[in-house]
Design a protein that fits this description.
Blueprint (H helix, E strand, L loop, with lengths): L30 E3 L8 H12 L17 H29 L3 H11 L3 H23 L1 H4 L8 H28 L2 H21 L5 H33 L5 H19 L1 H20 L10 H28 L6 H10 L6 H10 L1 H33 L5 H25 L6 H21 L2 H4 L5 H29 L6 H22 L5 H7 L1 H14 L8 H12 L18 H5 L8 H29 L13 H10 L35 E3 L25
Antiparallel strand pairs: 1-2
Length: 708
Amino acid sequence: MDDDVIRPDVHHDPTPGLIPVPHGPATGDEAVQLPFGHTPDPDHEKAIFSYLTHPDDIYTKDGTYWADLPLRERIAFVNKVQNEEAKQELKAIGRMMKKDPLSPVSWYFRNAVLPGAGLGLEGYVLFSIGNIEPLFRATWPQCWGHNATECSSNWIAAVTYLEVIGIMVGQLVVGVIGDWIGRRWGLIQDAAIMFVGLLMLTASWGLNLQGWVICYAWSLFFYGFGVGGEYPITATSSMEDSVSSGKLSTRNDRLHRGRKVTTAFLMQGWGQLINQALLIILLLIFHAGSGSPPYGLTTVQWTFRLSFAIPAVGTLWLVYYRTYKMPHASRQLIAAKKKSNVTGYDFDSLSMTTRHFGGRLLATAGCWFCNDVFFYGNKLFQSQFISVISGDNSSVMTGWIWNLYNVIISLAGYYLASLLMDNRFYGRKMMQQVGFLMCFIMFVIPAFKLEYYTSPAGIKSFQAMYFLSSFFNQFGPNSVTFLVAGEVFPTPIRASAHGFSACLGKAGALLASVLYNYIDTQTKFYVVPWFGLAGMILTWLFLPDTTGLDLKEQERRWSYIRAGKPEDYHGIAIHPMHLSLWERLRGVGKHYNPELDHKQKIEDMREEWAGKERMRREKEVTGQGMDDLEEDDFNDQVHNYFRNTTDQGMFVNNGSPGPSNHARNTSEPPFASGANSSKEVTQEKVRPASTSTTQSPSSTRPVSEKEQ
């Protein structure tokens, strides 16, 4: 070959005086582009996209999804992935401790304590109401006694009712606000309401005891509104925070989303523990080191008011932190609305969710309802065995000490739930079923022999069942309901669905609190166990298992539902492993097809890539900055592949193409304005769209003499 002949695929110096715009001078380093319509080699295509379509934590090397493996191979694969991840985490902890021995503590504070601070304060105050009631009863029998003379029994009962109703209203309203205005606004609003509510509780007063009780009850309602909002807002913001852009975050979402949300939720247990410990300390301080009655009015006033004033300081700091340190809390919601061209509340998504995910809503709301009856019913055990063990239980300190033991055991259940929540052989669904079953057993056994178990002969067994019911309630439905009520629903209505489920759950607590005023202890034990059995059946029939399934894949399925083509989705979100029995019986999983899904994923990514390219080019033309463009997971090979195989029409189409709308015009090659009909054309090497600052190859801007 003549040395003067320039080959486009071999490096050479740029041709003097020739500067093709906007590619820059040709040097032979440009990626080779095949003519449009050329069919890529499937194996080469799989090699390019494998890190995106078949991540190694859920797919084998030959591209088989872990849930499609035979049982023995499935066990080996899952154990290998989880063991390797555990080793990497231990190594990371080791590196942190080597650099700074206290760094794991600061990491835990940032990733668990701060996200769960609102729930910690909620647990502190919410359970404080029940903890200080015995102190009020011992101090003001004329209000809390059986023969109250100064206070209306209706207002005494309203202390509990208004608190629960306030929580229910907050769960519904803030759930809608979180999906309508945004997660960040909901977070700030909740913290501010809780702060004002704590000030109201601390300063509650009246001209007489009746007036004070009324003020106290309405203060609890106001505070309860903020507490209720914490449920949907904290759950959704915690799980969405782990699904930011980037494949690393998606991997973490699959492997650790349950742990991330549960470690925030378990701060509720720490709130209970701190409250009970602080009440004990305050009573000892103001009661001359004794916990025995009688209790002076000054002692009680200082004890209960300080117990509300101290968390008010932490809540004020929480208002500051959420206002100034969490600017991106609504990022995922904004992105989801943008894709659906929705600016306000997405009523269409709400309607579609009730149609397509009605069974899931029944599972999350119904199971939460059953669980809260149990959660409230756990107190039945405590009062019964304390009366047998202590004989004279007029001292509030006795009940507080036993409650402290119970909270510590509950915390163990919280942490074990956090540890196993993402285990693919146990996970969410199994944990909830086992938890409900154990609670059912722990209640139904003493129900039919209550006299024996509350006697000195059986009291030790009764205690054991009490503590086991507390443990399995946390290591089961109480932790799981909080998590799954958000993650099994799409982003646009996630907070609303979570808020509705939580609200119905609190209706269970309200039912228990009202019902227990009209039936005796034996009847209570006859009634309560069956809610555990009902919760287990609802879980088995209607709840899908989303363990190991990342939110991005669920959102991908949702995009097909939103486009009115749910049957065109073939991915792992409808794998039988991730569907409920009800959904499988309805045939939701019949469209699962790994081969079709692989092709589908590439076309879905093409649309995502084309949309970002279109935005980048528009910004280049208008001279806008690129800072607000989302980063993507695409490497240079993927960018080049899409540039070489994507129809130019996708860049001029206004709006985002919907799923399965992948028809391409094969009459013209892509980027026709800068290409010809030859067999091979050259193109610049591509940088990721989020960092590119050069003009698009499709531009036809004329060249001025100055530029030449």
